[in-house]
Amino acid sequence: MKKILAVVGLMVGLYILSGCGLSDDTVAKVGKETITVDDYKFVLQRRFPGKAIAKIDSAQRWSILNYMIEKYLQANAAKDLGLDTTRLYLSELANFQARLIGNKYFEKVIVDVLVPEDEIREAFEKQRDEVKARHILIQYKGARNSKAKRSKEEALKLAEKVAREAKSGKTSFNYLAEKYSDDPSAKGNKGDLGYFTWGQMVDEFQKAAFSMKPGEISDPVETPYGYHIIKVEDRRKNPFFDENNYQWQKKDIKRNRYFAHQDTALKMWDAHKKALKEKYHAELVKANIDSVARLAKKKQQNGYYKPKNYSKAEKQIVLASWNNGELLLDDLFLMYEGKRFAALQRRLTNPQKLEQTVDQIMLARLIENEARKMGLFEDFEVKTNLKDYKVQKLSALAYSKEVKQKVEPTEEEIKAYYEKHADEFVKPAEIEIWEISLKDKKKAEKVLRLARQGYNFEKLAEKYTEDKYYKKKKGYLGFKTKNRRGAVSQEAFKLGENKIGGPVRYRNMYVVFKTGKLHPETIRSYEEAYPQIKVRVRNKKLKERREQWLAELKDRYTVKINKKVVDNLQ
């Protein structure tokens, strides 16, 4: 309770806690920006996925709101600085929006057709039960994730033989799984899959498993991974099933069901893209694309790589057109503004790659046109994602300009910090190590005896070690800190200088080692520690500048919070 009161008390000290003048769908007013209930719910659900909002405690709610207010304060500052009109921001926003709308459009025109609401509901209802099963996987060449060399026909014959043997009861299923299964985990778990619910296995497998009774063994069941012989061991009510979780799980169920239809979906999408281009009479201007590729190649040969090296007329070259729209070279430059331009640079001089890029952006524009007609820009998920992205991006740009770019430690500050905190820059003790790694423990013990008898350790390493890399180095690791080489370096420090030890277990090997000189712990010199000192001083100054900036923002912009909405949010 004290923690909750402390958080609320902090908010009271900073902001106006009142519902006065704020509507019931408003959580807070931050300068000129508004945090709506939908915005708040979106961030809460992202921070606490799968958790009902009513179950998120008061301290967590206020903590998230405080975080959001800081971001919105920074977004206000970004707009006042004009950062929302820069080409970099507009480019990154356009790219994010294209991906966001593209995904939502694909979901509506493809996924929702293949996975209707009643199928999602049916899959959810099937999660009321869970099954415990074992399986034996027989793979063939060409099956998913398969390393098997047998043909599909040979795999089926073997699977049928194993199924008959399992059903006879003469040999335990566990033994058969360990002997025959191509599932890499079968050697350890003997085919045990534990309990699983509907939707966790591929369709063919789960349909078979959930249709069986405990104790029953299936005939071979074919999936993309090969042939499975399934033994159901138990069936029970799912202890985690909750009818109230449908809305939270709906998206995950839809995604899983989509993967079951993925091949069909991709064929539908190819046909849909073709129809969309025909509807808008969209076409690439291939002559201009070839011309731009030649132009870009010539400019790059002369050392001109950036968009500013292109004339206004060149930037207006039309690369694609459709009903009431066109794509210019400058549109490409905008989409690839900033660090992304390096990727476009490589494509500009290649007509085929440039054509692919233009085609992708043209398709994205057509999709946006259709999405607007369908009202997808008003979709809750799209609106909240897009608004959140804008706030996050603007706050980051403002932070960079007002904090990062204004902080640079001076040489005097760096030197002064070292003189005051030299003991923070310790160079840990190191010990010199040679090692011989072997898979067999008895062989490692034999090598240890030889080494203790005085045989040359480097020659023993050349002859016996199974670590190919250190074999070339005659087993020499160099100087290592206490934990740098795990159990090897830890034991080396225990023994001290010029000792022979082992075998110790390290990375599935038995290691015999020899120690050499021990370098004691020392304080790094100013020159040695300089990069580390500079980072610490800069981080300290960044923290101070950030706190100062946030205080300035809280003075500059009024923040009103609808406490009633925060406390009663469901």
TrEMBL record:
Residues 128-234, 428-517 form the PpiC domain. One of its GO terms (molecular function) is peptidyl-prolyl cis-trans isomerase activity. PROSITE patterns: PPIC_PPIASE_2, PROKAR_LIPOPROTEIN. It comes from the Bacteria. The keyword Isomerase applies. Keywords: Isomerase, Rotamase. PANTHER family: PEPTIDYL-PROLYL CIS-TRANS ISOMERASE HP_0175-RELATED (PTHR47245:SF2), PEPTIDYLPROLYL ISOMERASE (PTHR47245). This is Parvulin-like peptidyl-prolyl isomerase. It comes from Caldithrix abyssi DSM 13497.
